[in-house]
Amino acid sequence: MIMRTLNKHPAYELLASYSAGSLPLSQALCVSAHLEHCHSCTRQLQQLNHVGSELMQELKPASLSSDLKTRLFDSLDSLDEAALNAMPETTTKQSDPSVPRCLQQFIVDNYADLAWKRVSTDIHSVELCRDANGAKVELLKIKPGGSASQHTHLGDEYTVILEGSFSDESGLYQQGDFIVKDSRDRHKPVATLDKPCICLAVTEGPIQFTGFFTRLLNPLLRRSYALKQLSQY
Question: Alpha-carbon distance 144 to 3, whole Å?
Fold first, then answer.
């Protein structure tokens, strides 16, 4: 992928948590997708990783009891070698190179071959997974010149633009940009006219429409989101 100078980046604290491996999967996917496009955040992450490795070097190794070591080696010896050899080999099909590496576990070929579901006349979506914290990870595709209804969120929303671009009340966002919205933000994304806009979106709560008529759908959205979360357990 081509790395470029971007306008919107994850906060330093988010990068630090990513470096430490403490981010939820959903947020880590967004940061990882952004990093594939961004020189400056990649350099920052390298610096954070270096600092982390230096700090690890200063830590004193933890001592292990002889009993724990014995139990560990006994467990290794008890593995059934025949069963391990019988495990089928897995082959990974190469995804389209335009698909971020972190998403290739969900996207076998390319964006066009996904099972897109119609959300509105302008938008299609495909859910990739649900995080352990209930966050929904999905791709959104807005047709050229298409828009979403004005809305806010009951939880944080993380968005990374994978292809195309869109604008809202805060400005223009292009490929690779990392956008965070919360309940204080109201926006109406509008895709540019040149090509469809495909985004990786993570929502930690349902969206809430703010239009006079569309807000009547909000109770249904909340109920649907809650049922999806319950279905994970």
Answer: 24
